[in-house]
Fold this protein.
Amino acid sequence: MLHTDIAAALPEAIEWRRTLHRCPQPAWLELFATAFIAEKLTAWGYEIKMGRDIIAGQQLLPPSADELARARAQALAAGASEQFLAPAAGGHTGVVAILKGDQPGPTVGFRFDIDANETAESADPGHRPAREGFASQNPGAAHMCGHDAHAAIGLLLAKHLAARRAALRGTVKLIFQPNEENLGGAAALVASGIIDDLDYLFGGHIGLALTEIGHICLNIHDFMALSRFEITYTGRPSHAALRPDQGHNALLGSCAAIANLYAIARHGLGASRINVGYHQAGTTWNVIPDKAYFRMETRGVSNEINAYMVEKAHEIIRGAAQMYGLGLDIKPAAVAVVAESTPDLVALGEKIAAGLPSIKKIVPSAAFNASEDFTILMQHVQSRGGRALAALFGTPVGGGHHNAAFDIDEQVIANAAEFYAAMLDAIQGDRP
Ligand SMILES: [Zn+2]
Ligand SMILES: [Zn+2]
């Protein structure tokens, strides 16, 4: 079945995307997008889950009260309603919308990430959002990865499905996920149990390796598993000349740890990475430093290799604490895994895509070459016997992802929504 209503509704979806683009908010601060999405989905008859019902467990790198207050003011100024802001208080952002069909069938999830990047947007008139008046109005935040379009894809699919609820078999869960960029949202969704019942899970990204409109790829390889930690050492301060012997030097502990992290013997079965990207220690010239803090990450081309890197890193970090008599706090900050789409779903997707007029080319495979926390959702669904598919939808990307001049061809919004609608038909048995 061709869903001509999706193409017809593209101008409206473009308006949604541009409205979201004007009020970008990063990890755990996506208050405007959360309220905007929840209000529409409620009006369309969806059951809405928000707040602690969908964001559970340890919230990694939670926002400060000041950041939340500023984000709330931005959301209200952009027209968000108090009613839909309230459940996300404290930074428990995101929306899961549930539509139950009149007939029995599988439970199918679609995931759309909604967060912005902590970066500025180009004001150059050559940049369309600036030229046409929908550039970011929030200083230091911008949709430079296309998650505004991802949200619009979800809304377009939602409106389409709500209109044909009578024909729906089973249950659809539309998952509008916060905090993909800092890789904290997916794990929090899993911890809430909200995706435990999924038989199928679909998700995707626009652009990346596919820069032409109408291209699609369902065979994504080279996701990297990733773990991030915040490390804090606590020592004892003392006078650097009078009694250095009485001090416990946290700065020396962190330096010993950091130098040795880069000396971990590398796993023989595949590539790994380690980085310490931020380090802060001590106070002034003549005091033995009693505090040190750094941010580190490991990556691996398999979950096993990344787990090995984490284990060795923690041994070194604990060892340095012991050497210098320091207190130690290791706080997880982000996680992503390596996952693969379920093969029969890839095959089905390629068959369905071949029949869609909006698809001009099925790209046989593409490398992701980075980390993405959709993999955590995929792994969770697959580990419980469900099937998962990650897709790439082609669009030109202006200056590139996370660049100030990132921009898209908005046609990709309809192309992706059409593909998802057709996949839902296929697994509900409407198509061969
Ligand atoms: Zn990104
Ligand atoms: Zn992204």
About this structure: Residues 145, 181, 401-402 surround zinc ion (ligand 1) (CB under 6 Å). The first strand starts at residue 47 and ends at 50. The chain has 13 helices and 14 strands. The two ends are 11 Å apart (CA to CA).
